[in-house]
Amino acid sequence: xxxxxxxxxxxxxxxxxxxxxxxxxxxxxxxxxxxxxxxxxxxxxxxxxxxxxxxxxxxxxxxxxxxxxxxxxxxxxxxxxxxxxxxxxxxxxxxxxxxxxxxxxxxxxxxxxxxxxxxxxxxxxxxxxxxxxxxxxxxxxxxxxxxxxxxxxxxxxxxxxxx
Length: 163
Description:
By secondary structure, this protein is of the alpha/beta class. The protein has helices at 17-20, 31-36, 46-49, 70-78, 90-99, 139-146, 150-160; strands at 3-10, 55-58, 82-85, 103-105, 115-119, 124-127, 130-133. Helix 4 packs across helix 5. The model has no long low-confidence stretch (mean pLDDT 94).
């Protein structure tokens, strides 16, 4: 259903929303400003080096901390195509799906710059010749992602006449 292939950015455990997008940028509605400060609290050069289609690969509890929706928005706007992590904070997980940022829960070992291939439909992650089975996302969440996020998905449903 969804295939993503990109360059890996490696981060560890407990990457919180404060380092994904520092609090001082939360008042802006300028998405390019959010993107330019993505991961600034952990990796100040990230936004100048990340390329469209890149993939973040992280450890446990990615997106912990506050419920700020700006965290996944900043990553998506910076060009991040997906995030792979051993686990996600639940509110970050749902915020990411709601704004159309794909996630895969999987324990992936790779190094910065490796090419990572995701098959969202199967929940698999390939790095070189190694394939890791992650948690397969339910079809209704894949449909939300395919439509570009929850708002776009609901608009599509409304056009079809769904309640």
